[in-house]
Design a protein that fits this description.
Elements: H1 2-8, E1 15-21, H2 32-42, E2 49-55, E3 63-68, E4 71-76, E5 83-88, H3 96-116, E6 126-135, H4 145-163, E7 168-172, E8 180-186, H5 192-199
Helix pairs in contact: 3-4, 3-5
Length: about 200
């Protein structure tokens, strides 16, 4: 099984990175709607930005989503874990490390913009330690042990670069119905700016 999966999955695509937020109970998602519409108007960030979708009515759902051609941005509450999420949709050339770096950088820059926006009342803040990484493609990356064996070293290499000399822990979900991914928690707190500097 492992060899067959490795042959099927030489590269990861559709990488998602989610930065968990501090004090999620204090975050109001409604002001995000005009903020994201302004991002569309000004076409900030990577790729073409197209529309905003409001899923606040969905319990533990995708929250407010800024839909783009190459990728989506959102403040996402999946599994009742509120965070700033970047969902890469278009295929990306390069190595697995390049794809992880691109998604993390996009999520971090989005979080940095949201942290600085006065309309959000300084309530939206990265918690400094927890990042989730997913491959948003159940066909290419089923949530199973064999997929973990294929991609575990990529996740570890990336986490070591992102957190530099800080210790960190990684955990994997086991629900076969869920997306394959890992939750990474650093032993100390980092700012968004520090993590962007480490990515280079």
């Amino acid at each position: 099984m492992e060899n067959r999966l490795a042959q099927r999955l030489p590269q990861m695509q559709h990488v998602n990175v989610k930065l968990l937020l501090r004090n999620p109970e204090q975050v109001d998602l409604e002001p995000l709607i005009p903020v994201f519409h302004d991002w569309i108007r000004d076409q900030v960030g990577e790729g073409l930005l197209l529309d905003v979708a409001d899923y606040r009515h969905v319990d533990a759902g995708p929250g407010v989503v800024l839909i783009g051609h190459e990728g989506n941005y959102s403040v996402d509450n999946t599994d009742n874990r509120l965070g700033v999420r970047y969902n890469r949709k278009a295929a990306l050339d390069g190595s697995n490390q390049d794809r992880l770096r691109q998604a993390a950088r996009a999520a971090l820059i989005a979080c940095q913009r949201l942290e600085a926006d006065p309309r959000l009342g300084e309530k939206l803040r990265f918690n400094g330690q927890e990042i989730e990484i997913f491959i948003n493609d159940r066909l290419l990356a089923p949530n199973c042990d064999a997929t973990r064996e294929v991609f575990d070293s990529d996740f570890k290499t990336f986490s070591e670069k992102l957190f530099r000399e800080s210790e960190y822990s990684m955990s994997y979900g086991s629900d076969p119905r869920g997306l394959f991914g890992t939750s990474v928690k650093a032993a100390r707190s980092f700012t968004v700016t520090e993590l962007l500097e480490m990515l280079g």
